[in-house]
Amino acid sequence: MIRNICCIGAGYVGGPTMAVIASNCPNININVVDINSERISKWNSKDSNKLPVYEPGLAEIIKKCRGVNLHFCSDIGKAISEADMVFISVNTPTKKKGIGAGQASDLRWIESSARSISKYAEGETIIVEKSTLPVKTAETIKNILYSSLGENNTCKFNILSNPEFLAEGSAIHDLQHPDRVLIGGDNEEAIEKLSEIYLNWVPSNKIIKTNLWSSELSKLVANAFLAQRVSSINSITALCEETGANIKEVCNAIETDSRIGNKFLKPGPGFGGSCFKKDILNLIYLSNFYGLEKVAEYWEQVLNINEWQNKRIPEIITKNLFGTLAGKNISILGFAFKSNTNDTRESPAIGICKKLLEESCNLKIYDPKVNEDQIKLDLLSKQSSDIADKDYGTFERVNSIDESVINSDAIIILTEWSEFRDLNFSELIKIMRKPSWIFDSRGIINKTEAISSGFNVWEIGVGVDI
Ligand code: NAD
Ligand code: UGA
What we know:
The chain is α/β, with parallel strands linked by helices. The protein is 42% helix and 14% strand.
């Protein structure tokens, strides 16, 4: 039976996942470690608003378990040496340079984790791949683990793949009630020990056991399928806008077919988040690596449509505001890649805001959970030449919807936060310039109310209504 867990990586996956295990397994002691000591001290903050990850329900679990059987610390060596099971939950972004740049996963953090395990582990240790990884990474991890062991070290390792399927914004719910738990491995005993942990709260029929490679590949495939649905529906939004069809009516008509279903059919400004793009790129890289160019081309299209959708939106805004945004004030509502998270990685808002800034307008950005430093980091990166350009627009993060909207020519909804669903149009229009526009890239507002208050409305998958 597992008594002591170490989780390497205290990020969006490591933190919430270990919190849920700790809360369901009071007899297991868990140490979550990270090389980023600032992140660790944020996890230890008494002020729940200062936790590094915002997820509904997370702060409550942290409060209950932290200091009892859940610990966030920087002593990686000690945590590994005490552990019977080590989860690797580190980042695996797309490589920026070298072989496979732009597609393959950058495995440097996986390698450094494996080296730490090899250095500090004692006795027999089960290693669990929680990070999303290319197929066959377990083999690489095994090689690193054994090749960096000292000569007289008799440590033994069993490697399992246990990919995480949580979605941000609903992480705690997803972890508490998973559709399935996938465990890939070749050592029965190790698989049983990991299953036993989940069986504390997950029904046994939801635990799927496979070989290592099926498990690693399934994670990439699940994300690719989800992203493909978003790209499919987004491709149809443009067709609706051209033809007079309405995307909501089309969705309603197709989702009633039980084979299609109603999930992941919401049109939007393109999918964001740290994983969809990187995991599809990974799939493309693997397909090309095995000489399967047609497979690679197929998945490339999912990314191409996503990029196209993202670029289309600032073009529509500019076109409708008399072809120029110079000197105009634009209210941006939402910056996170989806609601209920403070995460902005690959957020569609980043590309859209950058394109708008190139048109020399002034953005006032409001997001309930994304702070000013993060917005600056996202909008100032790789734009130094543009920023130096006097004609580049300006942006600031403001604290409320009203502050964002006052004196603006247009409101752009980029994230589906619930507070943007029932905007007070009759009041907002009074503080705006005329003509007053609203561009709803998520299709969430009450359009009839907006129009009757005097707004010109553009809605994704419908087009303009005045
Ligand atoms: P993250 O960047 O939020 O967290 C990773 C953490 O690992 C960082 O804090 C980093 O400092 C730490 N780290 C890196 N190398 C380390 C080392 N050698 N020792 C100690 N700490 C180290 O990443 P994330 O969003 O939590 O994602 C982690 C993995 O889980 C990725 O492979 C991702 O694809 C996968 N995943 C993410 C999600 C999600 O919703 N974010 C969902 C499912 C799967
Ligand atoms: C996604 C998957 O849903 C998780 O199962 C997976 O574990 C995770 O990736 C991962 O591997 O990181 P996440 O990216 O957190 O989770 O959030 P999603 O709800 O999948 O949304 C991703 C993006 O697609 C968001 O930008 C969202 O706005 C967009 N989306 C989603 C749509 O535009 N329409 C939809 O109908 C659904």
